[in-house]
Amino acid sequence: MSMSEPTTGAAAGIAAYKAGLFTKLGVALGAGLLGGAIMAAFDPPKDRKELAKQGAAAGMGGIFFGPIAARVVDYYVPWIDLNTVGQVAYWEFAGPIFFLCGALSWGVFGALAKARQILRDKAAERLAKAAGIEDK
Q: How many angstroms separate the CA atoms of 70 and 99, rounded?
């Protein structure tokens, strides 16, 4: 007796759902990274490490914040319903939102990293001044 893969409609439905989920994640990641790449062209990072960090932030911004932003826009825009449109219409509507979320994530996380570095430098400067180890 051999065990075979289930060939029921439920198994096919699960496989189709997983394929659709991975497609959505792939498009969200790709659009977010593309948004980050556009931002990188305007404000290039100083090294590869910063590029990788901000690129990851852009991609994750597209994945995590993109669907939320698409649902919010879908709620306020009466002429589209993301629950009833086909895949092509979904990507035509949601793709630019994912792109924008990736671009904004690149900028926001880059600004936070710069602010953290400035605060770190200021704190070190204050500590050196308080300890009497000023650099002249």
A: 11
Distance CA 98, CA 25 (A): 10
Under 8 Å between Cβ of 84 and 93: no
pTM: 0.69
Q: For residue 35, give both structure tokens.
A: 């948004």
Who contacts 81 (Cβ-Cβ below 8 Å, separation ≥6)?
74
pLDDT score of 24 more than 70: yes
CB atoms within 10 A of CB 64: 14
Residues counted in the chain: 136
How much of the chain is in helix, strand and coil states, percent to nearest 5? 80, 0, 20
